[in-house]
Amino acid sequence: MYRAIIVEDERPVLELMKVLIGRNGNYEIVGAFGSPLQALEKLTELDPDIAFIDVEMPKMSGLELAHRIVERSKRTAIVFSTAYKQYALSAFDVQALDYILKPVTPAAIERVTNRLAALLRPEPASGGDNDGPNIRLLGGFEILSARGELLHFPTRKTEELLAYLLCHPEKDISKWLLTELLWPEKTQERAMASLHTAIYQLKKLLKEQALPIDIQRTREGYFLSLGQMEYDFLLYCSRESEIASGTMTSEQAEALRMLYRGPLLEGRSYIWKIWLEEALKKQYADLVRRLTDENVAERNWQSAERRLHAFLSIYPLDEEMNAGLIELLSLRGQKENMVRHYEQFKRRYGDEFGCEPSEEFMTRVRPCLGG
Amino acid sequence: MRNEQAFHQAQIKPHFLYNALSSVIGFCYTDGEKAAELLSVLSQYIRHILETDRDKPLVPLHRELEVIEAYVKIEQARFGERFDFICEIEEEAQQCEVPSLSVQPFVENAIRHGLFEKEGLGAVSLTARIERSQAVIVIKDDGVGIPSDVLRRIAAGERSEDRDGGIGIANIRKRLDAMPGAALRIRSEPGEGTEVSIHLPYER
């Protein structure tokens, strides 16, 4: 959670910022101020990671406030909000993380979050070697160059384009499909031009960052060739049948399970990812189920619990896994913990969906609670 | 034809719209009724701007007042209790013909430049009365005032740079100059306020 302060002199807009930033889920709003002076007073005490500042405030302008903040607290990232596009384009002589245009949208906050995450990320701890290129699609979308630097895309579309290709690697993808996908609102001609530009930008980026993957032009479209490159999504796909039939070893299953850091392309609102996301979630669930069943058979309670908690930290409202955890706690004789977890789950489920958990869930947990 | 379009576009201030919409969206979460009310007022404002009849450069004062009221309502929603708007229009003056959007920009300036920069509560007043054969419209504010060099430039009729691309004061002055018997006077005292008075010929 990033600690955020908001400085905005118009009350309704301040409320709007609180709502949108709050709903993003990555922030703890530690201060919301209607005047720059109020914000400065509390600044050192609060020590925020990020400050959202309205540029167009009277008296001490937002820019001046930003200067003062940077003076006192170098690590606080600054994001300006403005109705003026011109403001945004001209050089802020403060190193701002980003600017957002009014009216502020959830998408803008998301973009800011991604930039902040990239800025604040400590040395990336990838599953394999730390140096060298790395691609992650599960629990975000991150590509590290050969030098271990995080890739920055010139536009959101180029990012989405690469994400799509990475989800359909070693395949001939029709350029018509790509234009429909990414620029449905444009005419064919314009969309095709945009596609060519985006591909050009991507190829350039991949080459600059010395990534061992390559985009090739085919007659009908484009082809992402991976060479020796492996990544989380790829491994899940290639092992799909093994997961389903249960033919892989426990070690392999565990390695694969650990790769699942979160939903596919988490944080990106790509329409096309939805069914892929579902499919991967199911595979992950299959892995967790298999491994925890093994653990229970061996009476290795701690391992089983750990794996279930890992799953639930990503999908807290999954009924099946919650039921599994409740059964596990019951088996271990941890009545109190079990009841607490059940109550908590019921409450959160009700808050989110406005109803009781399903009959299937209740059927599983009733014997545990009844005793 | 292109000039007309430019004129049209210049009157819709994107900055104002984006800010107004931001406020409305904010209110949607905290006060739905208010949000609805503001959207209503905003559409009235836009309608007025868009439907200004190119062929009728003069409009009755009461129509100009409608735009002004819509504008003020929106600004008050944004800035809450930061300013008072006092409007006193003589009955007879309501019918007086004024160049369209010649009064509203002054009210806007009073709020945006005068009061915006001021600390504490501010007041804008708009009065209109008939004096002999003239209609006198006065826009007064107790804001930060206009610096003397800017004032000089305005008096000289120089095109002031309105960064929002709106109708500059020079444009209003030009239109008033084209009306026989019309006059524009701007007085300002830095730190104390500004007073704009528009004199227009009036026939009973």
TrEMBL record, chain A:
<feature type="modified residue" description="4-aspartylphosphate">
    <location>
        <position position="54"/>
    </location>
</feature>
<dbReference type="GO" id="GO:0006355">
    <property type="term" value="P:regulation of DNA-templated transcription"/>
</dbReference>
<keyword id="KW-0597">Phosphoprotein</keyword>
<dbReference type="InterPro" id="IPR005158">
    <property type="entry name" value="BTAD"/>
</dbReference>
<keyword id="KW-0804">Transcription</keyword>
<dbReference type="GO" id="GO:0003677">
    <property type="term" value="F:DNA binding"/>
</dbReference>
<dbReference type="Pfam" id="PF03704">
    <property type="entry name" value="BTAD"/>
</dbReference>
<dbReference type="InterPro" id="IPR051677">
    <property type="entry name" value="AfsR-DnrI-RedD_regulator"/>
</dbReference>
<dbReference type="InterPro" id="IPR036388">
    <property type="entry name" value="WH-like_DNA-bd_sf"/>
</dbReference>
<dbReference type="Pfam" id="PF00072">
    <property type="entry name" value="Response_reg"/>
</dbReference>
<keyword id="KW-0902">Two-component regulatory system</keyword>
<keyword id="KW-0238">DNA-binding</keyword>
<keyword id="KW-0805">Transcription regulation</keyword>
<dbReference type="InterPro" id="IPR001867">
    <property type="entry name" value="OmpR/PhoB-type_DNA-bd"/>
</dbReference>
<dbReference type="GO" id="GO:0000160">
    <property type="term" value="P:phosphorelay signal transduction system"/>
</dbReference>
<dbReference type="InterPro" id="IPR016032">
    <property type="entry name" value="Sig_transdc_resp-reg_C-effctor"/>
</dbReference>
<protein>
    <submittedName>
        <fullName>Response regulator</fullName>
    </submittedName>
</protein>
<dbReference type="InterPro" id="IPR011006">
    <property type="entry name" value="CheY-like_superfamily"/>
</dbReference>
<comment type="similarity">
    <text>Belongs to the AfsR/DnrI/RedD regulatory family.</text>
</comment>
<dbReference type="InterPro" id="IPR011990">
    <property type="entry name" value="TPR-like_helical_dom_sf"/>
</dbReference>
<feature type="domain" description="Response regulatory">
    <location>
        <begin position="3"/>
        <end position="117"/>
    </location>
</feature>
<dbReference type="InterPro" id="IPR001789">
    <property type="entry name" value="Sig_transdc_resp-reg_receiver"/>
</dbReference>
